[in-house]
Amino acid sequence: MAPETHYLMVSLVLFLVGCVGVLARRNLLVVLMGIELMLNAANLAFAAFSRSRLLVDGEIVVFFVIAVAAAEAAVGLAIVVALYRKKETVNLDRFNVLHQ
Amino acid sequence: MEGALLWILIFPLIGFAVNGLAAAAAARLRRELPLRFTAFVACAGPTLSFLLALDLFRRFLGEEPEHRLLVQEVFRWIGSGDLSVHLRLLADPLSLAMVLVVAGVGGVIHFYSAGYMAHDKGHARYFAFLNLFLFFMLLLVLGDSLLTLFVGWEGVGLCSYLLIGFWFEDTEKARAGKKAFIVNRIGDFGFLLGMLLLASSLARLGGGATLAIGEIAARVHELPRGVIEGAALLLFIGATGKSAQIPLYIWLPDAMAGPTPVSALIHAATMVTAGVYMIARMSFLYELAPAASAVVLLVGAATALFAATIAVTQTDIKKVLAYSTVSQLGYMMIGVGAGAFAAGIFHVFTHAFFKACLFLGAGSVIHAVSGEQDIRKMGGLFRKMPRTGWTFLIATAAIAGFPPLSGFFSKDEILFRAFSGTSAALSWAPKAAWVLGTLAAVLTAFYMFRLFFLVFAGGEGEKTRGAHESPPLFTVPLVILAAGAALAGFLGVPAALGGGNRFEHWLAPVFESAHHGKGYASAHASHGTELVLMALAVAIAVFGTSAAHAFYVRNQELPARLAGRFPAVYRTVRDKFYVDEIYYVLVVHPIHVVSRRVLFRIVDVRIVDGLVNLAGHLARGFSYMLRFAQSGHAQTYAFVLLAALAVLLWKVL
C-alpha cells in the first residue's frame, strides 16, 4: 500500500499540469481540460485523505465535485460552442471584448 | 437714540436693495420699471438719513460739547487672538458734520438725478448705485475703526467705478471707470499698509493689536517716532488716491465720463473728501508727525496750483470743474497739513455746496444745449436760463472767494493758517504753501470767471440758439445749493471779523486732543495780519475776475494772441503737462511690456502652464503603465489572481 504522500505528489503534479494548461494554453477547449485536471487533482487528494484517515466525508465530497464538474463541463462546452459561432475560433486571445 | 445711527446708514442701503432687486426682476420679465418708483425709492433713503442726522444734530446742540458723542455697537466683526474688531458706529461733531453734508448735498443730487436721468433706460441701476455710494460714504464717515473706515473707503471706490463707467457701452467711459478704480487701488494699498503698520506696532508694544481709532489715539504716544511718521505718510498715500492729489489725481478729470450728477456727487459731497476726512479723523497722528504733515501741506499746495493752471486752458465745461475740484482739494490738504483740521473740514463743507451747485448747473447747461460740452460753442445763456445763470454766478463767486460768500471764509481761513503756521520739520513749508495757495487763488478766480463769461455772457454761441431754462426738478436743487454756497460761510466767520467761528467751535472737541500735542497757537497770530490777508484775498478775487473779464468779454482776441505769443507754454498747459502721457511712458507701457514679455511668455506659459501640464503628464505616464494590466485577457487576470494567492499563502504559511 503506497503511503499517503505518493498520492499527494501525483495530485500536486496533476494540479500543476492543469494550472499551466489554464494559464498558458490559448485553446479554450484545452483550458477547460486543464480545469478538469485540477478538479481531478483535488478529487485524488480528497480520496487519499479519506482512505488514510478512515473517514467517509472525503469520498462524499469527491462525488459532489464530480457532479459539479459534469455540470460545469456541460455549461462550459455550451458557452464554447456559442463563442465559436460568434468568432469562429477557440483562441482565448481573441476573446478580450471586456477590454473594449 | 443709539438706534438712529444705524438707521442713518441703513436707509440708503434699503434703497439700493429695493431698486437693485426690482431692476433685476424687471430685467428678467423684460419690463421697465417706472421712473416714478425708482426715483422715489432712491430719494427716500438720503432724505430719511438726513432728517435723522438733523435730529441728532439738534440733540447734540443741547448737550455739553464734551458729551457730544454717540457710539453704537452693531456686532463683533473679527475676534482673532488678541485682535478684536467691532463694527461700531461713532457720531461726534466731525462725523455728524460730514453726515449732514453727505446726506444733505447727496440727497439734493438724488432729486436732481430724477430729472437728469429721466430719459435713461438704466435709471433703476443708476439709482441703486447712487444709494449704494451714499451708504458706503456714510459707513466711511461713521465707522469708529480704521477697518470699518476702510470698508467704506473701498466701497466708494467700487461705486465710483460703477457710476463713472455707467454708460459702459461706450469704451471710453468704461475705461474712465477702470482708471478711477485702478488709480484708487494704488492709494488704497498705501492706506492698508499704514493701517497694518499701526496695528502691528501697537501689538508689539503689548496690550494687543487694535484698529479702533479711539484706542489708537489713546496709545499713539507710546509709538516710536519713525512708526508714526511712516504710518502718517502711508495713510496720506491713500488720501492722495481718494482725494486726487499729486501724483494720483489723474483719475478725477476722466471721471467726468459718468453722468453729470455723479460728477457732482463724487466731486462735491462724497468720495474725494474722504481723504481729507480721514486725515482729520487721524489728526492725533498727524500732530505727532511733523514731517508727514509737511508733506501733506506741500503736496496739497502743489496740487492746488498745478491743477489750477490746467483748468485755465480746458475747453470742456466739466473738465474745468474737475480740475477746479482737484485744486480745491489741494486747499483742503493745505488746511489739514498745517494742523488746521477744522479749517480743512470747513472747506470740505463749503466746497460741497458750491461745487455741487456748479456741477449741477453745468448739467443743466449741457441739458439745454443738447449734450454739447465745449464752452467755446456756448455763450449768452444768462438771458435764456436766468435761474441756472444766477445760481452758477453765486457758486462761481463763492469759489473765487468773494466775501461774504462761503468760499471766501473757508479758503481764507486755510491760507491764514498756512501763513501763520509753523512746521517742526520744514520751517519754510507753511509759507511756501501760502504762496502757492495764493497764486492758485488768483487762477481760481480767473478760470472760474472765464468759464462763466464764456458760457453765460457775450453773444449767442453756435450751440445755444434753441436753449431754454431747465425744468424745476433741475432748478430747485440749484437754488438750494446756491443758497448754501452763499450762506454756509457765516458758520465760520473768524474772530477778526467779529464772528465766533461757530464751525470751529463745533469741531473743537474732536481736535482738542490733537492740539495738546504740538502748539499751533501761532494760528491766532494777530487780527491785524489776518485782516491784511483778507484784504489781499479780496484783491486777488477782484483781480482774477477782472482779468477774466478783460480776456473773455472786452478783448476776445486776447487769449488767442497770448496763446500765439507763447505757443509752447500754451500747448503744454492745454495738454495737461502731458502727465497722462508721462504716466503712460513711465508706468503703463513698462507694465504692458513686462506683462507681455516676461509674465505672459515666461511665467505664465513656461512656469505656470508647465507645472500644470507636468501634473497632467505624470498622471498620464502612470496610467500608461497601468493600462497593460487591463488587457481583457481572462488568462492574465487568472494568472495575477493565482500569483497573488500564492504569495499570500507563502506569506501566511
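The interface with chain B takes residues 19, 22-24, 31, 92-93, 95-100 of chain A (CB under 8 Å).
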